[in-house]
Structures are given as C-alpha cells and as structure tokens.
Specification:
The complex is a heterotrimer of chains A (299), B (293) and C (371). Chain A has 299 residues and is mainly alpha-helical. In chain A, 71% of the residues lie in helices and 0% in strands. The chains are: A mainly alpha (299), B mainly alpha (293), C alpha+beta (371).
C-alpha cells in the first residue's frame, strides 16, 4: 500500500492503485478551481480597477491604499476587534462555567444540556429576528420592564451608535456559548478520573483541583474554542444583517458586511476584493498554524 | 461518597449545590426566553404585542399570523407567503446534502484506507477550504454561475453548497474511517473484494453514525445559509433565510411582528426538528470534526 | 525448490531498507514461525507474502509461480489477522463465505463448504450471529474458518493469539497445532511470543532489525543459537549471559568468573571446539540457560560435565513446579532453575551444579557464536 518501487504488477493490482486516485481527483479538481482558483482570481481582482464588473487593468496596491482610507472600513475593523474579543472571551467564560457546573453530577443534565445547545441549530437570521425585537425599546425588554413598573429602566443599545455593536455580541454569545460548553464538557469528561482521585488524596481542594489539574488539561479545548470562535467572528455576516442591518448608520458594520456592500451595492469590486483578501489573510493566520499542527500530530 | 463518584472525584456542600442549580436554571432561561417569547407572541394579535407585555400569554389565541406568514405575507413585492421559499430551501438542501455526503464518504475512504503519497497535502487543502471566509469566492462564483447559466437558480445554489460542503464531509468521514480497522480492508482484499466492493459491502454498512452526522451537519449549514442565498438567488428563487429576512426587514407598511415570529419559527423548524431527533449525533459529530481536527 | 520460496527479498520505503535479502524456502506441510521483537520486519514479510505490500527486490514464489505484483486474491492464500478482522456487519456464515462469493463460487457450493468448515471448527451454532456477539475464542475460530474455507495453498497467521487471555491462548495454540497435524497445510505464522514459536513450529526464523538471524528447527534454535540475540530472545527466563575469561588450568580449558564474594570461580570446559583456541586468554561471553544450573540432586543424569559452583544465594522465587534462584556471577544476577523442593535459602551459601555441556560461547564484539 505504501509507495515503493515494485516490479511486475498485474492488471488488477494496478487498477486498485489507480482507482483511489481516480475517485479522489474530481474533488481535488473542484477544490482547486472553486476554492484555490477563486481565491487567486479574487486576489487578482484586488489589484485591478474593477468596478461593477471585473476589469483586468492592473493598478497595483491602489485598492488597498484606498481601502484603509475609507472611514467605513476602519469602523468595520474596530467593530471586528471589539466584537471578536468580547465574543470569544464571553463565550469561553460562559461555556467553561456551564461545563464545570454541569460536570458536578447534576440531576437533569439531560434536560439542561440540550437547552444550552439548541440555539446553534438556528439560523443567524432567526436569532437576529428574535433579538432585534427583544432589544427594541418600544416593544421589547425596556417596554416590558416599564410596564412592570420599573419606569426608569432603559435599554436602547440597538438604537445607540456607540452601543449597537454590543447587541451583536449579546445575540452571538446567545447562539454560540452552548456549543463552547459542549466542547469543554467533552474535554472534562475525557480527563482520567484516577488522576483526580490521586489529587484528592494529595489533599487538593476542589478549587485547586480545577486550577492546577483540570484546566491545564483542557488546553486543547481552549485552543479549539479560540480557533472556531475567531473564525466565526471574522465570517459574521448574517447576524449583523438580521439584527441591525449594519446600522444605525454604519455603526455595526463588520468586514463581511463591508465587503458585500462595496462589491455588490456600491460597485467598488476592486476594493471589495481587497477587503475579502484581508479577511482571508486574517483567518489563514489563525487556521494554518492550527491545521498544520493538527495534521502533523496525526502522522 | 467521594470514592464512589464516577464522573469526577469531587463533592460540594449543600449551599454550593443550590447555587449551582440556580445558575444553571438562570442560564436555561436565558437560552429559552428569546425563542419562547417569539413563540408566545406569534400566537397573539398584533394589537396585544404593540400595546402589551411581551412575556404575557395571549388573551386572544390566534393562528392567523401563522397562516399569513405561510401563504399570504408580502415577501419582497409578491404576497406569496413563505411557502414557496420553504420549498426552495428543501429542493436546494436535499440534493446538496446527499451529494456532498456521498463524495465525502468516498474521499474519507480513499484518504484513510488507500493512503498514497500526497494524500495528507490533499487533505490539508480540503480541510483549509472549510474555514475560508466565503467573501473570498463570491465574485468569481457569481461569474461562474453566470457562465454556466444557473445564476439565480436553485441548481446554482445546489452546486455552491455541494462544492463548499465537501471539505467538511471529507473531514468527518476521514476521522471516522481512520478509527476503522485497516485489517478489515486487508482481509477483504485477500477475500477478493475490489475497491468499490470493499466500500459498499464493508465500509458503508458500518458508517451509520457518521452518515447521520454528515447529514445533520450539512443540512443545518445549508438550510441556515444566508450569504450564498442572498448573493446567488434572486426573487422567487431565494431560500427560506433570505425570504425571512425580506419579510422582517421590509420597510413598507405596518410591522406585523407576530407574522415575523411565525415566519422565524418556520425557518427554524426543520433544523430544530433535526436537532431534537438526532441531537446526540449532532454534538458528537461536532466534537469529532472540530476538537480532534 | 520449495513450496513457498522467498528468494533474496528486500523491502525499502524510499531510501530506508527495512528487510534485507531474506531467503527462506518452505516445504509443503511445513509450519514456519517468524518470530522477533516488534519492528523486526516479520509482519512486513508476511504482508509481502500476502501481497498486501509490494516487493522491492527479489521474488516470492508459491508452487513455483512468481507472485510479485499478483493481487492478494489471486495468490490462493488465506490470512488470519491479529484483530481477526471479521466484517462487523455480516453474520458469521457470511463472513466465512465472503471470499468464495467474491471469487464467484455458486451458492450451493459455498453453503456446502461453510457447513464443512463449521463442523470442523465446531462453530455450527454460531453461523447466524454477528461478530459483535462472539467471545474472543469464538471470533478466533471464525477467523480460522474464513481462512480454511478457501482451501488455500498457504495459510498466513499474523499474531492470531495475542488478543486472547492467557488460558485461552494456550488452548487455541494446541488447537492450531492439532489442526495443522490433521490437515497438513502449509503455514507461515508471525508472533513475538517465543513460546508460541517453539511449541507450534516445525521451523523457526528468528528475525531482528530486518535480518533473519537464524533459521532452524526449534531444537536447533534453542540449543545452538547462532548469536547472542537469538540466545537471549528465545527461552524464558532468558539465558544467563556472563562475561568470562578463557584460560588453561591443569591442561584443561576453563571459563573464569567471580562469585558473590568477589573470589574467582572456574568452570571447566570439556571437548572444546577448535575455534575456542583463538580466544584463549581473552574475554568471551558465556551463555548458559537457567535449567542448566540446578541443585546437585536435580542435575541432568545424562550430562557428562557437571561443574560444582559454590555461591551465595540471592533471592528464591518459588513458581510452583520449579523454584527460580538468583545468584551473583561476574557482578550480574544469574538465574538457576531448581526442583520445587530443593533446599535453598536466601543469603546462604549453596552448591550449584552447572551443566557445562549446555554452555555456549559468543564473541564479545560480533556477538556471534564461537563454534
């Protein structure tokens, strides 16, 4: 089965060595065209003066220079930094807390776990619809609190240019934190119970046990959570569209919404392509080392 | 009792346990409320929503918003309701799920049981394709769909979802088949079974769990997709998520919140149903795919 | 010209050669065991005979037909795997007949063959079950049934007993041997367990580092090991290995070593081979098996050269049938095998009887046998 120089091979054996490659090759071709070819094409476009339609006039780094002078792009980058860091930190904290609490031999774990997890089965459009309304001061949370007699309660972040980005964080955390919980729970369940018994006999308290023994062993789960959440954050598009539409104004624009509006509504394809390339590079900077390490480990 | 515990070797005091349950129940409410409130309010007349308390149960129960969302609500310019778009999404998701699962299964089989030089690199290329931001392919994809003359159609979306689903399905099947004993393949070779016979007679019959995972994952992703739907499907060809967004964000007329909620729940129903029926596989599949890489 | 010929076969992965010019000829009806530690190349060689791995150079012939490049299913071989490799989705009956089905044997013939094999192995009552419902021993039988039903020229076994518990392993070992005697089939059997190798085989190939270290009958391998590796690998407890000095004393050749007290001990060597002469006055390695060191009453009555050796007893390990006794020679622990009722006490001096007929000498540099 390994590649060696073997002599005098019969037809059947030769067929059996070619078939696997033959079966894999359409996927490889599709991948090379639709993923890597397209990436190359988009990168190329980012160096041209394409507007509504692709053009092949080379303009060098023009689009990138213009991109970073556009105010909306800088807002989008700032928003991404705020959104991604809060999203990752809060999801990890909630996920870890829930996983540790659920791991205390909780009665009803079978009921609670699916409740924590179900939001991830929903479309971001559905999540956005639900939260858009919850957060709407006129009919949602604020209105309800006022009706209950808490007259001074205000919660109008979604209408506030300064605060709107945080509503995206709330809805995104609602959708993803259960998934992070599941990852940590799987990690916790994978820890050898005998190690914990040994630590207990060594006199470690519960808190020490978590800090010194358990959390260090969850390192792979932390890493996976970070990689998956950061990749989701950079790709975030649907939720913004459904929740705020990028507004008020463009206060909640993210690179993904920027790319879409510049490419397809504002007919600035060159700049749109440049922004897509920057998104890809950001994700690649996180994913490539991770995947490389994972694949090497397997060998 | 500590020695008898199996999940971990710990115990906590009575007060701490009450606190733990309290926190867990609060979080359960946090996750349940948005969807629950949406459900309650989809059964209210509009006047009760705009004038009343969102947590209150309906005084006049009504399914009118559901009927409206399904068949008469204004989506874009046509008063068709969400029904045609729901059908679009099914017609799009089913073939894309089936195709990408079959191809993923064959790829996983080849990559684990017929390892050849360069296979790891090919797998790396496939794997990376799972994580690209799709913005990077939108422009060329739009052109290719135009050239193939399937722009704006459901077959176009099937192609797109199939292509960008292969990476994930291959990843799932590869991880699953990597744990499948290679000796079985060798025994079958000695028994005289060929490449496809081994796949069909030996591998596939043992692949139930991972086929379920692949179905669930692909279906959820494709059904919930918005970006491709919004980019490559126009008007009557749009999938459910795009139609829902049009319904909710249409700027004309009175905002019929109850109809929006009914529509949102309709859009969520298929994936929720899949999750409820096969949720255990779903989680296990995500674990297999993401944690173990 | 044998039944199965392995002629100058090598295997390389890229630039790394993992099997070096293996040359073995197996007669019809022989039971050849390939034994060695993991990584020695024994499984690679078996897979090459099966056709699961390619041959880098040399050739493998079965019944005079060159097998290089021939598909595994066309070699008329059958293989029993370490994990049994039973198809989990098929019943036992389907497992057994899958190979016949793939070769296009008609259903009535398949059923007949299956019934015969099931009767032979006494697994008739298992035919409709799935492998998951079988015990380890039953799976082992089914795996053998799947091999037998094909009526192959050569049976290949890849560590078939290593997944069984100790008692079952011994039972199945006996059963494989009975089956071989009854059917007279040609078998190549891979194991890392030297006891399996000794008990089952008609010939053993001891392998290490990609080389066949020695090929011979179990008795030859055990009594006349070709080098230090074979000597220490075969036998349990392992052969005692001492660095000694060869010298003439009173006109006879002696091996000199030191006891637990640091004083010299001399062991006379009779009918020394001519090759010993060259080592006179030099250090050599003396190998002596535990059963050749006993208490005086337990010594082999047919032995011609029993040497008395007084030494302090280290620990005694009663093992039921025998008692193992350690003592220090040349600064190393040395194990003696005694009758269970020998009167040996830890820390006391004892008169050991050393059967020097069984002693073998090795060159300390090449580690080859001096003979």
């Amino acid at each position: 089965m390994a590649a060696t120089t073997d002599t005098g091979v019969d037809f059947r054996t030769r067929l059996q060595t070619w078939l696997p490659k033959l079966v894999l090759s359409p996927s490889l071709a599709v991948m090379l065209i639709f993923v890597y070819g397209f990436i190359a094409f988009t990168i190329y476009l980012s160096f041209t003066d394409s507007r509504m339609l692709p053009s092949y006039n080379w303009v060098g780094w023009d689009n990138y220079e213009r991109l970073f002078r556009v105010r909306e792009w800088n807002i989008a980058l700032t928003n991404l930094a705020i959104f991604a860091s809060l999203y990752i930190i809060i999801c990890t904290l909630i996920g870890l807390t829930l996983a540790i609490l659920l791991d205390q031999k909780i009665r009803g774990e079978g009921v609670l776990r699916p409740i924590f997890l179900y939001p991830m089965a929903l479309s971001f459009i559905v999540t956005g619809t639900a939260w858009k309304w919850m957060l709407d001061p006129a009919i949602g949370l604020e209105n309800t609190m006022n009706l209950w007699g808490w007259e001074s309660f205000t919660f109008n972040w979604i209408k506030d240019r300064e605060m709107a980005i945080y509503t995206i964080v709330i809805a995104a955390v609602w959708q993803s934190s259960g998934f992070v919980m599941a990852m940590f729970l799987a990690g916790l369940r994978g820890i050898d119970n005998e190690i914990l018994k040994a630590a207990q006999m060594d006199g470690a308290s519960n808190f020490q046990m978590y800090r010194r023994i358990i959390l260090p062993q969850l390192r792979p789960a932390f890493l996976s959570a970070f990689v998956i959440l950061s990749h989701l954050a950079i790709k975030s598009y649907d939720l913004v569209i459904a929740l705020t539409g990028g507004g008020p104004g463009n206060a909640t624009a993210l690179p993904a919404t920027f790319m879409y509006s510049y490419t397809f509504t504002r007919n600035q394809m060159g700049i749109g392509a440049a922004s897509a390339v920057i998104m890809l590079m950001t994700i690649a900077a996180i994913m490539v080392p991770y995947l490389y390490a994972e694949l090497r480990e397997k060998k | 009792m500590a020695a008898a515990s199996t999940e971990n070797a710990m115990r906590s005091s009575g007060f701490a346990r009450v606190l733990i349950y309290l926190i867990l129940i609060l979080f359960a409410l946090f996750y349940l409320l948005p969807f629950g409130i949406m459900l309650i309010n989809s059964l209210k007349p509009l006047s009760e929503i705009t004038g009343g308390n969102m947590i209150a149960l309906p005084r006049d129960w009504t399914i009118a918003p559901w009927l409206s969302a399904w068949s008469t609500a204004q989506i874009g310019v046509e008063p068709t309701g969400l029904r045609p778009y729901f059908i679009n999404s099914i017609v799009m998701a089913v073939p894309a799920v089936l195709l990408s699962t079959i191809v993923g299964a064959l790829n996983g089989y080849v990559l684990t049981k017929w390892h050849f030089r360069g296979a790891t690199i090919i797998f790396g290329l496939l794997l990376f394709s799972c994580f690209i931001p799709f913005q990077i392919v939108l422009i060329p994809m739009a052109r290719i769909l135009g050239i193939l003359d399937i722009a704006g159609t459901t077959p176009g979306l099937i192609l797109v979802h199939f292509v960008y689903g292969i990476g994930f399905t291959t990843l799932y099947f590869r991880n699953y088949y990597a744990a499948f004993p290679t000796e079985l393949v060798r025994a079958a070779q000695i028994d005289g079974a060929g490449f496809f016979q081994i796949f069909w007679r030996i591998m596939l019959p043992s692949s139930g769990p991972i086929i379920a995972v692949s179905f669930i994952w692909q279906f959820t992703n494709i059904w919930n997709d918005f970006l491709f739907g919004a980019s490559f499907a126009s008007g009557g060809g749009a999938p459910m998520t795009v139609a829902l967004n049009n319904l909710v964000n249409s700027s004309t007329g009175v905002r019929e919140y109850n109809v929006h909620f009914a529509g949102a729940i309709m859009a969520a129903a298929p994936t929720l149903l899949v999750y409820i029926v096969a949720g255990r596989y779903f989680v296990r599949g995500l674990m297999a795919g993401s944690v173990k890489g | 010209m044998g039944f199965l010929d392995i002629n100058n076969v090598t295997k390389s992965y890229g630039a790394v050669e993992v099997l070096h010019k293996v040359d073995i000829s197996v007669e019809e009806g022989e039971f050849l065991v390939l034994v060695g530690p993991s990584g020695c190349g024994k499984s690679t060689l078996l897979n090459m005979i099966a056709g699961l791995e390619g041959i880098s150079s040399g050739e493998i012939k079965i019944k005079d037909r060159v097998m290089n490049g021939v598909h595994p299913s066309r070699r008329n071989i059958a293989m029993v795997f370490q994990s049994y490799a039973l198809y989990p989705n098929m019943t036992v009956g389907q497992n057994i007949t899958f190979g016949l089905e793939m070769h296009g044997t008609p259903k009535p013939e398949r059923d007949k063959a299956m019934a015969d094999v099931a009767k032979l192995l006494q697994i008739e009552n298992l035919l409709t079950r799935k492998p998951g419902q079988l015990s380890g021993g039953q799976r082992q039988r089914v795996a053998m049934g799947r091999a037998l039903v094909r009526n192959p020229d050569v049976f290949l076994f890849d560590e078939p007993l290593s997944n069984l518990d100790a008692k079952l392993r011994v039972d199945m070992r006996t059963e494989i041997k009975k089956l071989h005697q009854k059917l007279g089939t040609t078998i190549v059997y891979v194991t890392h367990d030297q006891i399996e190798a000794m008990t089952l085989s008609t010939r053993i190939a001891v392998m290490y580092n990609g080389y066949v270290q020695q090929l011979g009958t179990p008795k030859e391998i055990y009594d006349n090991p070709a080098n230090l590796f074979v000597a220490t690998f075969m036998g349990s407890p392992a052969m005692n290995v001492l660095t000694v000095r060869l010298e003439d004393r009173n006109g006879a050749l002696h091996a000199l070593t030191t006891g637990a007290d640091g004083q010299e001990r001399a062991l006379r060597i009779d009918n020394a081979s001519a090759a010993y002469a060259a080592y006179k006055g030099r250090e050599v390695i003396l190998g002596i098996r535990p059963e050749a060191i006993t208490d005086p009453e337990g010594a082999d009555r047919n032995a011609r050269n029993i040497q008395a050796l007084t030494n302090t007893v280290g620990v005694t390990e009663p093992a039921g049938a025998d008692t193992f006794v350690t003592m220090t020679l040349a600064g190393k622990d040395c194990i003696a095998r005694m009758r269970a009722d020998a009167d040996v006490r830890s820390g006391q001096p004892f008169d050991f009887a050393v059967n020097m007929d069984k002693a073998v000498l090795f060159d300390p540099k090449t580690e080859d046998r001096i003979a």
